Amino acid sequence: MAALYRARPNGRAPRRFEEKVLHDFLEDGRLKAIPRQRKKREVVLRHLAGKFEPGPSYTEKAVNEVLHRYHEDVATLRREMVGYGLLARLGSEYWRAQ
Fold first, then answer.
1. What is the pTM of this model?
2. How far apart are CA 37 and CA 43, in angstroms?
3. Rounded mean pLDDT of 40-47?
4. Model confidence over 46-97: pLDDT tens digits?
C-alpha cells in the first residue's frame, strides 16, 4: 500500500493520493470531516480553494456561504485556508491566493 503513495517519475502517485483523500472525505460533494493529518487536510483545502475564482475579492460572508455548501465549520475551513496560503486576507476581504 505504501508504494501507492510514493512519488513516481510520471507524477501519478500524488494524483492518486489526492483522489483517494477526496473519495474518503467527500460524500455527495460535502465534506464528511476535516482531516486531521496535515497532508490530507491540504488536499481537501486545495479542493475547496478551487471553488473560489482567482482575481475577485470576497467578503467574509461570501466566503462563509461558499464553504457552508461543503461543511458546517466554515470558520475553521476559512482560517485553515488562509493559514495554508490558499486564501489571502486583508481585514474582512478575502481572495484566492493561488
1. 0.83
2. 10
3. 98
4. 999 999 999 999 999 999 999 999 999 999 999 999 999 999 999 999 999 9
Q: How many helices (H) and strands (E) does the chain have?
A: 5, 5
Q: Would you state the cell numbers that stand for residue 3, as one nine-digit string?
A: 508504494
Q: Residue 17: enclosing H or E segment and its boundaries?
A: helix 12-25
Task: Say which residues have a Cβ less than 8 Å from residue 96's Cβ, sequence separation at least 6.
Answer: 49, 52, 53, 54, 55, 86, 87, 88
Structural domain boundaries in the chain: 2-96
% helix / strand / coil in the chain, to the nearest 5? 50, 15, 35
Q: Which position has the higher pLDDT, 89 or 12?
A: 89
H-helix or E-strand containing 25? helix 12-25
Strands, E, within 1-98: which ranges?
A: 26-27, 30-31, 57-59, 87-90, 93-96
